[in-house]
Amino acid sequence: MFLFGNFIQPHKEPLRDSIQTLKTAYDAGIDTGDFMHAGFSLATHSNSRFFSGEELSSFAQDMASYSAVLAQVRQYSAQAYINLGKQTAENLIESVEQPHCLIGNSYNETVMLPKHQQDNDGTAIAEAYIYKLLLAYCFGDYANAINYANQAQSYLIAVSGSFFVPIFYFYAALAHLTRLPSQSESEQAEILAIAQTYQTSLAQFAHHAPMNHQHKLDLIEAEKHRVLGNNYQAGDWYDRAITTAKTHEYLPEEALANELAAKFYRNWGKERVAAGYMQQAYYCYARWGAKGKTDQLENLYPHLLQPILHSTIQPLNLLETLAGLVPIASITHSSHANHSSSTSINTVLDLATILKVAQNLSGTIQIRDLLRQLTQIILTYSGGDRCAIILPQRNNTWQLEAFATPTATEFNPVPLNSNLPLPVKLINYVKNTLEVVVIDRLVTDLPVIDDYLTQQQPQSILCLPLLNQGKAIAILYLENQLTSGVFSRDRLLILHFLCTQAAISLENARLFSDRQTAEAQLQEINAQLTHSIQLKDEFLATMSHELRTPLNAILGMTETLLDEVFGLVNEKQIEALQTIEQSGYHLLKLISDILDVSKIASGQIDLEFAETAILPLCQQSLEFIQPEAEKKSIQVVSKLPTELPELYIDALRIRQALIHLLNNAVKFTPPGGQITVEARIASVNRERDYLRILVKDTGIGIAPENLQKVFEPFTQIDSSLNRKYEGIGLGLALVKRIVELHSGDVSLTSALEVGSCFTISLPVLSAEC
Q: CA-CA distances (angstroms) from residue 194 to 201, 333, 766?
């Protein structure tokens, strides 16, 4: 149960699911007297609680109790692991001068790290440096963070398989990216390579457990775009990281993503946007219980946190806060009515309520669900009684996508240039100018009054664009037919804030929809391709049978005639029959090669691997081509050592590849030439040796520009060769595919009129590999 909860469950399921598993393992260990596994189970239980974002004070309190229990049963190693996590939590809870130094009531690194070294406890050392890396990065001490990342790297193998590994990759990548802007171009490339290595490793964890790691990948991607100056892409990735972390309830990473986004927007000069993200970061850290971190934010960014810091002195003004978060750039307000608080939003609403509504929007990914939710929310907070959303299409046209009343939302897409029951002139005006237009009692100087407005006489009108990165994602139209002055400034602030969040969600939903469409098309294409492959395979199998049947009859009859079963034959007849026989066998070989290439290409070929002695295999291949070589007076030289290793291969297929290469050498070597076969062991890297089998000839050679073409199926590099040498260009393609199926490769060197050398490289593997 300990092994499952620590090494398996977190890599497939949400991390918090392992908390109970490991607690149960601890209880079982205590009950049975297996105190060692009980201690390790409790230590990993502690890790799961910390990294899943449990409230820090509650976590530290429980860890104090657990530490005392482990001391009683003398499980000091496990106690040290728990104390590491507890001290890390305490450095987050309270403001300390050097939060990355694990020195406090629970753990003292100046005492414990030398002890871990003395005890050769690599696990404790790795965990200590990863916790220190987390703290240093979290509190903005990036130089120390990189130092701790380098030290943790040396001990990472000691925590293999645990959740500490992806945590290390996450913070190490982020820490290294902070160095990039101040470095030279060559050093920047090196830093990006390091970060990419960590990101790639983390992606492997995210592939199997996206709920635990996808938000981490998204945040690394955001930071990468930030340091590279890709501001718009960075903004999108920050939002993805925040949304994904919130969806899967990883509060620490949600806080960190908001903080990094705030710093990004502040450096970009967008102070008001930065304020919104920084306030969200503050709220997340506060909910986590990281008072040491919120104290730091208060000291560093008091101007961004002004609404929060002043809330103890005066009530937090919701509307002014929203105005600061997302200001409305341009409003055309054609009204002379009194927009007092009597028509404004209910003052009992607080910022948390509005943020929760916005977050609900951000968590919706299906376009229709999002539009249904958005229209009903808009009608709830706006005072309107009709709502329409118009969306852009791929052909640069716009269409009505959703129309809502307080009781229902209808979806009946209609192009904007059709006869719509909407003020099309007003919508086009807002689409072109990107202004927010408010009209009361149809009193306006704008050229937007059309037949619809004249006939319907709505008393309050609001039309505004939903913008994302300065681009109109949608147009929102609202009206109230009976009451004027409904769309006051207060309501506009609420609506504009919600619509800004909705614009991001709409863009994400559109991308998600496009991805679904692309995946569906890909599935359809794959299905068609699979069907085509099946038809091709069936055709080849049928044609093979149909071709082999008459060929076998021809070859059988030819052999009978050559044996003079039906009477004597003269020399010319024998020569003709031998030509027929030779051509027949050539056709049979071509049919077999075509079927083999087809099977390999479709992944249907089955290899039968076994330990195989290489020397006899090479000798048998040489014996096979010896008669043809003798006919052309070609000398065959064998340079095969007597002691060659056994390989784990499909002997039949490797022999087939060798014979193809040898036949090729015989075919293209002039009479009186030479073919040489060598074998040698080559060390490609420290972990693996390769056996290389070389087939050299003194043939016609190949021009440099044609060296790669020879391995392409149905390709001959010179059409004039078709007349002189038989074949359709399948042999070398088949050799290459067979060798690659053995995790090897085929290389070629050649010179015209000098000869060629084909080299097969096969890994020296045992059956256990």
A: 11, 54, 34
Pairwise CA distance, residues 111 & 88, whole Å: 16
Instruction: Give phi and psi for 565, each to the nearest 5.
Output: -65, -35
- The DSSP result for 66-126, as a single string, is HHHHHHHTT-HHHHHHHHHHHHHHHHHHS--S-TTS-BSSS-BHHHHHHHHHHTT-HHHHH
Place of tokens 């996450």: 170
Nearest to 673 by CA among 639, 640, 629: 629
Three-state DSSP string of 441-487 = CCCCCCCCCCHHHHHHCCCEEEEEEEEECCEEEEEEEEEECCCCCCC
Question: Per residue in 292-301, is it b (16+ CB within 10 Å) or e — as a string?
Answer: bbbebbeeeb
Tell me the backbone φ, ψ of residue 191, rounded to 5 degrees: -65, -45
Nearest of 378, 388, 398 to residue 422 by alpha carbon: 388
Summarised one tens digit per residue, pLDDT across range 113-149 is: 999 999 999 999 999 999 999 999 999 999 999 999 9
**CA–CA distance, 731 with 715 (Å, rounded to integer):** 10
pLDDT band of residue 559 (cuts 50, 70, 90) is confident
Residue type, 260: L
User: pLDDT: is 515 or 133 the higher one?
Assistant: 133
Q: Is 546's pLDDT higher than 70?
A: no
| 590: CB partners within 8 A, 6+ apart | 728, 730
Query: Do β-strands 460-468 and 331-334 pair in parallel, antiparallel, or remain unpaired?
Result: unpaired
Q: In the Cβ-directed half-sphere of 34, how many Cα atoms lie within 13 Å?
A: 13
Interval 209-253: pLDDT, tens: 999 999 999 999 999 999 999 999 999 999 999 999 999 999 999
Q: Which residue carries 């209910």 as its tokens? A: 346
3-state helix, strand, coil in the chain (%, to 5): 60, 15, 25
Q: What's the rounded mean pLDDT across residues 548-568? A: 79
Q: Which is it for the CA torsion 119, 120, 124, 125, positive or negative?
A: positive
- Give the Cα separation of 280 and 274 in Å (integer): 10
DSSP 767: T
Judged on CB neighbours under 10 Å (0-12, 13-18, 19+), 233 is middle
Tally Cβ neighbours within 10 Å of residue 528.
10
> What is the C-alpha separation between 243 and 505, in angstroms, rounded?
10
In the chain, the amino acid numbered 732 is L
* Rounded distance between C-alpha atoms, residue 117 and residue 139, angstroms: 27
- All residues at 6 or more sequence positions from 255 whose CB lies less than 8 Å from its CB, including other chains: 281, 284, 285, 288, 290, 293
Q: What is the pLDDT of residues 673-685, one digit of tens each?
A: 999 999 998 876 5
Q: Are 622 and 640 in contact (CB under 8 A)?
A: no
Model confidence band, residue 314 (pLDDT cutoffs 50, 70, 90): very low
Residue 317's Cβ-count burial label (10 Å; 0-12, 13-18, 19+) is middle
Pure H helices in 268-411? 271-288, 291-300, 306-309, 318-325, 351-362, 367-382
Residues in Cβ contact with 231 at an 8 Å cutoff, skipping those fewer than 6 apart: 225, 264, 268
DSSP 230-299: -HHHHHHHHHHHHHHHHHTT-HHHHHHHHHHHHHHHHHTT-HHHHHHHHHHHHHHHHHHT-HHHHHHHHH
Q: How many CB atoms lie within 10 A of CB 163?
A: 24
Residue 438, helix vs strand vs coil:
strand
Residue 294 neighbours by CB under 8 Å, 6+ apart: 282, 285, 286
